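input
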Amino acid sequence: MIVIDDLRKRYGEIKALDGLTLKIEKGEIFGLLGPNGAGKTTTIRILTSLSKPSSGKCSINGYDVMENPLEIKGEIGVAPQHLNLDLELTGRENLDFYGRLHGMMQRNMEKRIEELLKFVGLKERGDDLVEGYSGGMKRRLLIARALMHRPRVLFLDEPTVGLDPQTRRRIWDTIRTLKKDSITVLLTTHYIEEAEMLCDRVGVIDKGKLIALGTPDELKRQVGRIAVELFSETLVDRKFFADRAKAFEFGSKYCGKERCDFLLREANLEDVFIELTGRRIRD
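output
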């Protein structure tokens, strides 16, 4: 559904994207994981025809993004990181306005608006002004707006940033439900648990390059499924092992000699990123 081939983007001497190549399948929930400045938002801006690449190609559902921008607009929906709803309109009016921009017929719009307000749990608040919505409600309305014209691909840029855990999980449920309609989802996130819970595959991006690709389990197996965290007055370190027994044996022996404490836990995607780059996701 999405094909990216040797995509590059420069801002002066800065390489925002440095030869990014990637394929995303129809109906897949795909996560781009990486620190600020890694190139995640730049990738989405190019795929949504808001920015032109310095070189390389990309296509969505067979349409070249640079050569067919109007066709691309009909194929995609975008829920940006920054809220850009009209606060002086109701939720229903926001959706109506967006539908008009896409040339939808009035009778089709009315039915679609009702479907989407119900889908994102805002049916009872659809006639309220958006300025009175909570942060989570605004995020859900953003997703509904992006789905208004029935796109094949949905871009979600940090869809749960700044939300409390309960609201975040409600949005996760909304995103998961999109799979039944075979909608392809590309999301960027800083939240490790978000990528692990939602994504069929994850691409780890750093300095404009794709440095790892696979399912969350495949990526974690690259470093080892069990992490041993070592703590002492002079030491904070971690080691990785394929199973808990070997991890416990190492921790017991090491800390018996070095007089330190250790903790066993499941490895996560941030461990993968640190092992690959020496940096944390939120750096």
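quick obs: The first strand starts at residue 2 and ends at 11.
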